[in-house]
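call fold(seq) -> tokens
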Amino acid sequence: MRKILTNQNGNLAIAMLLAVVGLMSGVSMAALALKDTKSYLWEFESIQSLHVLRGEAYRGQAFLEQNSDIATTVRTPERFIEISGSHMKRTFTSQSRIRKESSEQTDNVEIEGTGVTGSLGEGKQNYKIDSLVETKQGIGQVAYYGANKSMVRKYSELTIIQTSFSEFMYFTDNDSSPNSTNVYFYGYDVVTGKVHSNSDIRIKQAGGGNNGGWPTFLNLVTTAGHIVSNPANYPLDQVFQGGLVEEYEGYEFPPMANDLRLKGQPLGAGKGNIYLLTVNGTNFDYWQGSVTVPRRVRKIVYDEYPPPGDSLWTNVFSIPDTIWTSLPGGPCSDKAFFVYGDLWISGTFQGYQTWGCSENMKLSGDILLTGTPISINPADPMNSRDVVGLVSENSIQVNYAHMDPSDSLRVYPNMGSDTDYPAPAGGGIFIYAAMCALGDGEGNGFEDGVFEFEYQHPHPSTPSLNFQVTHPDGSVEIVVYDWIDVHRRRYPPVPGQLWPTPALGQAPLDLPYYNPIWPERNPVLERGTINIWGAVAQRRRGFVHRSHNDGEYPSNSGAWNVDIDMCGHPTSPNENIPDPFYGNIGLQSRNWPGAAGSGVGYKKNYNYDDRLLEVTPLLYPKVRLKGGKNPMNQGDWNLKKPVRSIVL
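ret:
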């Protein structure tokens, strides 16, 4: 070794060897550094592209929120995002294609969080936003050269769903009664879905429930006004457990079901016709009731009745008749219908069905789903196929009773005992539907659309009675006397000759035709429970229960004007009105057997159908903020193999 080191040629060889080793080490280190730099740039471009891609998808959503009525596919302007540093300059370009989906493209979608695929149905307003992000080296003019394109490109597809009023369990445009008086949520109210009001929301610590007498809201509550509480101080987190936003932007509540009118299957001959319709799964059948031109009726008023007696005057008034005709129905699954006229509807529904009408809608029985047993939540187990929408351009009422047109017998379709089903459900009516009452009274609260119950101030009325008449020849005949109340009193009533009322020392009776099956000896007060798995949107808060003599009652003086809720005198379960001729004939209001309570109407068992957050009834009214913005919900966001370019 000493000889090599002292040899000039040996030193040169070692120096050369060390130079080669150093060069190779440098090259290796440079390669490693270059690899690390390339990996860093690749990772940076990949991560940054994802951020830009999501932002581009949101840009498409923001465009839709301002321009939801796109007729064709549109493309957003190309956007350039420059990012530069000491060792890196990159430009990210992004662009989106926005398209409305056809019904064939929206047949199936996964309901978020359930793993279940359900039909969105024909007419659901869904959109796709296809977004592409490309990366270019350099910024400014340098980035425009095609050779400077990076290999990193990202492409995604975002589903956007325009929200509808079915998203809210409870929506009111004006959170007051038709009488323009205060309506409160209180202890018994447990609201499981989203709530919004375009006016103040009133709450009251008033009995019942499991929240110290306060109502309970388990989901987000928004109001364009404020919370008005009685008492003034309320436990915020205890009441509004899902959150509260006051002074929230208001929503437009349309007066007409425009989409349903335009795209739904038409049925009916217009105002003056009633359609009593029953759905049996995938088909329906119905009766058409044609309301005739009112005929003039003359009834003599006697000083004593039954006659003989002296006639005092003659009542002259008009009454309409209804002529019923049975008509063939047809298939209704996965269809939307708009009925021109009044719609009375009930049945068991299969598939996606929406039924709307231009006049009032009455629920003439349960609204059930084929795939969901009665009193069971449709999301447990998941019913991914049956969704019902009910839309009225006036009001939606729970029917009291009606005459069956097939046999003219009286039918009480929506009454039940409190123990018919496990609590909190009860007998009465079951409604598996999203309901929307759009009626706009243009300032008249009594003409606004509400969800309510029919016949809110019941009183007895004298039915037809048999009377035995003995003729001069000794023969005996049984005579039927009807219209008894009208033969005894002024009708229609006038000032100074009011219909019977305790205030005038008379036995209180019902005004003719106020009861839909007048005359009725024993009208029903407490009727059971309204069981809802769905959603309710209404112009005003309708009544589902009344006190016998509450603050809403505008007249206890005997005056009658049903159109403005003046109904003579308070209701009472203690009426036992003797007939002046027949004596005690049992004229007395009653609770339905097994339906407890001390007022008139229904208990509430309201449950939000969580499926409605992801799926919407066919052609159901869409929401729009008063500022013109169209709220949108995001569906799936999927990354896909990149395309070469965004084309229309």
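The first helix runs from residue 2 to 6.
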